[in-house]
Predict the 3D structure of the following.
Amino acid sequence: MAKITDQLKAEVEEIVLDFFAEECEVEKSEISNKTKIFEDLDGDSLMFLELIEIFKEKYNLNIELKAIGKYSVKHPVQTIGELLEMQLLIIEHENNITNL
């Protein structure tokens, strides 16, 4: 579990924006917090899994996909902003995300 700092927020945002720009073949400048992942970027659920693996490795996270799935059912992610919020919660709380 990590403490969320402004630097960490900026780093996570940079990774997410770079990831979607590359995967969806759009300019990074075209992506904002309000960008809809499925509708605007033609994203898919496999992208979420790829991102989770990137963050698990980068931040040495101990989180199970089952925990993320349980959280996602209660808090569905549709926009880049929502994804950023969820990713920060995963970094901060890891498997305890299901208790939020």
Notes: The radius of gyration is 13 Å.
